[in-house]
Design a protein that fits this description.
about 425 residues; mainly alpha; Growth Hormone, Chain: A; about 80% helix
């Protein structure tokens, strides 16, 4: 008798992660697209907007580390449920805000809730995928950041023009609750799920030393914080997360200020940039997965892919030399795509180096440090842009920022390479 074919339910799970991440990025992107409208209505300065972004980033850092440990303790299903409920409520509350301080409050709640997305998603990938497929699965769900960033410039200006800015927050907030229903209906751990057979379950655990029991105790932070394996992720997030946040929150304003783009209607330039990041996210995951399938050691495959991504970012430093909007779009598209290739692999490297029961905690710690960097960086961005805006040459401020963006990935890669020399995955017992 022929063996029954393996089910492929893990890709349904990956699709759920993709849509959650897409919603996550639509919700956080809305305010950047509404910035020109909101700064007129609320009389914001660049400092006011920087404070709003900083409030989001600070709360996101807190949410990352709290949810990271929380999810390792209560499980990915319940942890994800709580996270998206909090951030979707916060997204809806933006519609009733009347003051700048009110925006700071609701952005803080949004950031806290959204902090649970990546610790939960990376843990789910570790639970549902063998190592040789994890970077691809991560690349697919991480491409939701790109799709969200593409969808928002199309949806939000249209909603703004037809209904107003309040409805832009309401409509995008409701989408999260639609996803939540699907999550509760379709997700469970692979060992408990009725939709997968023994063949798929065996494949999921095929390249793992030993399958951890579902009730394995989480590892204490004090042990994790002392490991080089943890600092591989922490250092990378600290240096590169602020760059991605700069792309999310200031690129619309950059094109509006330097190239006079009208953000009250959908524009092709931002759509192209954020669409390119989808290619980078999936492409980065595909490259390292193919190298592993060809027999490369897992860590070597990740590091080579990270180096390729770091090199691909550097041309953004040339953006200062162009006055052509489409040349700028091309250069920034390459850099943003390379960031997502980097991101797909840096998230995956966590599950390569630490046990599954510690994945969310390490992702939480790294995400927290990245968000702390992203909290501080907007202050510098706001100061720099405000200075050059008052001087009548805001483009110079953006050019300085692009130089910073171009070098930090290579610095981060050198640190990762130093930390991972002769490094092997660990197992810890409590």
């Amino acid at each position: 008798m022929n063996k029954p074919a393996s089910t492929n339910y893990r890709w349904v799970v990956c699709a759920l992660l993709f849509f959650a991440t897409t919603i996550n990025y639509i919700d956080r992107q809305v305010i950047g697209l509404l910035k020109p409208t909101l700064e007129k209505d609320f009389h914001w300065t660049e400092f006011d907007y920087a404070n709003i972004v900083m409030a989001f980033a600070a709360s996101y850092a807190l949410g990352y580390v709290i949810f990271g440990n929380f999810i390792d303790r209560i499980g990915s299903k319940l942890g994800y449920t709580i996270s998206i409920t909090v951030w979707s409520i916060a997204a809806l509350l933006h519609a009733v805000v009347k003051t700048t301080f009110g925006f700071i409050q609701v952005r803080s709640l949004l950031g806290f809730g959204e902090g649970g997305n990546f610790p939960a998603a990376v843990k789910v990938v570790a639970e549902w995928f063998p190592k040789k497929e994890r970077a691809l699965a991560t690349g697919i769900f991480n491409s939701g950041t790109s799709i969200g960033a593409v969808a928002a410039p199309i949806m939000v200006p249209w909603i703004l023009g037809v209904y107003g800015w309040q409805q832009a927050f309401l409509i995008t907030g409701v989408i999260g609750f639609i996803w939540l229903i699907c999550w509760l209906l379709f997700y469970e751990l692979p060992t408990r799920h009725k939709k997968i057979n023994k063949q798929e379950l065996a494949y999921i655990h095929s390249d793992q030393e030993a399958a951890e029991p579902d009730n394995a105790k989480p590892i204490k932070w004090i042990k994790l914080i002392g490991l080089k394996q943890s600092w591989v992720f922490i250092s990378a997030k600290l240096l590169t997360d602020p760059v991605w946040w700069f792309y999310l929150f200031w690129l619309p304003s950059y094109f509006s200020s330097v190239f006079k783009l009208n953000l009250e209607k959908p524009n092709l330039q931002l759509v192209i940039i954020y669409a390119a990041t989808t290619i980078g996210s999936i492409g980065g995951g595909t490259i390292s997965s193919l190298l592993i399938k060809k027999g490369w050691p897992v860590l070597k495959a990740r590091k080579v892919t990270l180096l390729i991504a770091a090199i691909a970012v550097t041309p953004i430093m040339l953006a200062r030399y162009t006055a052509n909007v489409w040349v700028a779009v091309g250069i920034i598209s390459l850099a943003a795509a390379a960031h997502q290739a980097w991101s797909s692999n840096i998230f995956t490297i966590v599950s390569d180096l630490v046990p599954k029961r510690a994945v969310s905690s390490v992702v939480g710690m790294g995400g927290m440090t990245g968000s702390i960097g992203s909290t501080i960086f907007p202050l510098f961005v706001g100061f720099l842009l405000n200075h050059y805006k008052l001087a009548g040459n805001i483009g110079t401020g953006y050019n300085i920022l692009f130089i910073i963006c171009g070098v930090v990935y290579l610095i981060a890669w050198l640190i990762i390479n130093a930390l991972t020399t002769n490094l092997k995955p660990i197992t810890l017992n409590e």
